[in-house]
Amino acid sequence: MTLLTDATEAIIVTDDRNDVLFFNKGAEKLWGYAQDEVRGQNVRMLIPDFACHEHDAPAASHRATGLDATVGTSREIIFENRHGDYITGELTLSSSRVGPKGSRYYLASIKAVTEENHRKKLLDLQNTVFQSLSTEMQIQDVADLVCREVENFIPNTVAILVLIDEDHRLHVLSGPGLPRRYAAALENVTLSDADIMALSNDLDEAATVVWESYRSLGVSLGLHDCWASAIKASNGKISGIFALFSRNTSTISDWPQKIVAGCVPFCSVLIEQYEARHHISQLANYDPLTGFLNRTAIHKILRNLVGKPGDNHFAVLMLNLDRFRDINDALGHTNGDDFLKAVAARIKSLCRSHYILSRAGGDEFVIILPDTQAVPATAFAGRLIKGMEEPIEIGGNFITASISAGISMFPENGPDSESLIGHAEAAMRLAKKDARGTFRVATPEDHTAAQDRLVLGSALRDSLAKGLLNLHYQPQIEAKTGALYGVEALSRWHHPHLGNIFPSRFIAVAEDTGQIEAIGAWCLEEACRQIVTWDRDGVMIPAVSVNLSAGHFRKRQLPEMISNLLTRFGIAPARLTVEITESVMMDENKDTMDVLHAIRALDVGLSMDDFGTGYSSLSRLTRLPLTEIKIDRSFIMNLEHDANAQAVTTAVIGIGNRLGMTVVTEGVETEAQYALLESLHCDVMQGYLFAKPMAPKDLETWFRQPRKIMPAMRKACGEQPASAQAEKK
Prior knowledge:
By secondary structure, the protein is of the alpha/beta class. The protein is 45% helix and 22% strand. This is C-di-GMP phosphodiesterase.
């Protein structure tokens, strides 16, 4: 017994009732109790409450059956000493029957391994963290793993990992066991520069930050002590705090602080990984200029909103800055970026906190209004536009931001994010077209337009590639002689599955989808090829007019392309006329004007199409190198009965005549219209009175047949219709 009494290891002997019979000096040192205080007591006094069931169940089973896997083996145990410290030890348990009655006794040999055990556990935890970070495991999950493992090291504790952001604000990254009220209190903390300096100088000052100021709150929530350390990143920045709170009322040794300090290095790596992944996420989901969500992220959010169950309603607003290009051109792109940031800040200030904001690209923004119906959505759009009127100072200039907005509603305007964004964008474009600085709400008609852009746009691109478009030609007749003046080339599209598509429909789609320039280039080449074919077949067509979009005339390569076509097909320039719209005439861009003059320098005709339907400027008309003006058919429909239409038509014909331009009138369908226009000295007429638009072969047949001669034509030809017929042939 003397040998057992003086052994350095703790030796405890208990009977079959778990009463302590022997408690040596090693046990006294380990537990802090004298032998007399323990002898005769149940061994439970040496075991913490949380571990009692782990002891009692195997002991009871062994007494009943004589079988116990724990007897004769070694295992790790955690117990609480007299001072409240948790000690880790290696327990070896043996059992024997002694005496004539064969009473069973247990001998427990306990070797304290706390320090060595904690070091090993910390090393294992560090390896686990590094392995987890090398996988796709979420940083949040890795942080939770760290906290739970540390709580297992020191029972009855709560571990937390706190981030410190660029603004010195605390964010609890992980704290599964931390009371919610305490976590909320920490989330409201913003450290001062002095606090950060103190943490840099002494990492243990972290306890002051997360505990000393909240001790009374912690005690009320069952927390009685705290060990904490600041976390310093590799660049020297204080990036976080790791803390361990105790629920024990008694004082514990310094081992919890050693555990916390041991966790700091790999917690630093964990935070660096978190910040790196967060940065990548920012780049993938956020606009770097404004901090708003980008277009990809907003589509993800819309898909989630669309998928929500129940009676779900929300609004999508698409905003576009009016004339933003002018700001870039006048002030430079740096100031333009500053303006966009200021606009984003203004938009954010006018939105409620739960609205979702996105910069969709360029000068476009998207706002999602959750749980919102149409009426409040339109009311908000009005307030937003009004709120943007206060000038913004950029580079010493005060600029008023004007925005146009489009609104789409879920579920009314589509079942998916693409439809909702598309309808809002279409409504916004309509607002910009009708009246900048206003908003429009998407309608079913917008839905049809969006479908056209999607379905027809794709089919049109395919048809262009396969050569499925064709040109029809409508004759233009000299008013006085009846001679053929030329033909206008008109695009036609017959799709094998969609059938005949009206030009007004597919041309609009081509403009919206950016294919209009490709159609114009194809029309020019096809018209030149057709002129050569007609010449070969003896069909003399004096000139062919081809419509081009406004975008063509901003391309400096257009004159060269036309010149190359004329050379390639061997066509005289005067046999080709290019038609422009009034939007081209009103374009102040120098490139546009240079292109127009370069086309005329080739001796190619230049015609103003649909004159009078837009915002014509007579002063600009005199500066353009035009060879002809075309009066729109809308003026001719009621020409005989509408005095206003007659007045405008008379004025346009007079202007054209005085400027030396040929005046062509479209939409002539009756002899009365012809007679009135001829009396007003209109030069050329085009319309169903003479011929409808025809395919090339049909035009050839029409060309070879006698044509309708009006009375004024007979008079001009000296009452000799046959001579006019001969001239035409």
